[in-house]
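Forwarding the complex inputs:
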Amino acid sequence: GDSVTQMEGPVTLSEEAFLTINCTYTATGYPSLFWYVQYPGEGLQLLLKATKADDKGSNKGFEATYRKETTSFHLEKGSVQVSDSAVYFCALLTGANNLFFGTGTRLTVIP
Amino acid sequence: EADIYQTPRYLVIGTGKKITLECSQTMGHDKMYWYQQDPGMELHLIHYSYGVNSTEKGDLSSESTVSRIRTEHFPLTLESARPSHTSQYLCASSPWDIATDTQYFGPGTRLTVL
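Prediction (whole assembly, two chains):
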C-alpha cells in the first residue's frame, strides 16, 4: 500500500546552516507529494507541494523536488532561521484523495 | 489564510464523559477530515467526509463518531471518553476539485482524559 518514510528527528541546527530532511515514498501510480509544517501550538500548514515527476515545489526558501526514479521528495533549505523551528511532515495524496503523512521531523534552530 | 476553526482548543475531562469536538470551515469545501496526532507527532486519519451526509472511517480505528449535516460543520463525538483518547485532534478540509488538492488544517484540539 501507499506509505511515506521520513527522516527521524529531532534535528538541531545552528542558524544559517543547510537543512535536508529526507522523505521517500511507496505508492501505486503517480501521487502528489507535500510538505506540511506545524509550528508550536498550531495546526498544520502547507509548505510546498509537487504534483508530478521532476516538479520542484518551493516556498519561504524551502524546496523539494519530486524524484520518481528514487521515489523521494527531500526537503532542503540553504540557510535556516530560528523561526523555522517546527515539525515538518512529508505527505502523499492517496488514490482515495486522502493524505498519508510521514512521522514528522522536529527541527530546532539555535541562534 | 485558511478559515477553519476548532473548539475547544484545550479540554480536560474525566473518564466516562461524552464530548463533542467542533470543527467548522467557511470555505465551502466538500471534503473534511479528522486526524489524531500522537504525542510523538505521528498523524493518523480517523474520519473523513466527501460532503453532506457522507462519513467514512479512516486508516486508524477510532471509537469516535462523526456527522456531516451541513457542509461547513464536521463535529467529532466521543460517547464515553477514556484516558486512551488523550491526544491532539486536528480537523482539515479541502475542495473536491482534485486539481486543488491542498488540505487546510484547523489549530487542533488538545484533549486530556483523566
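The longest strand of chain A covers residues 86-93.
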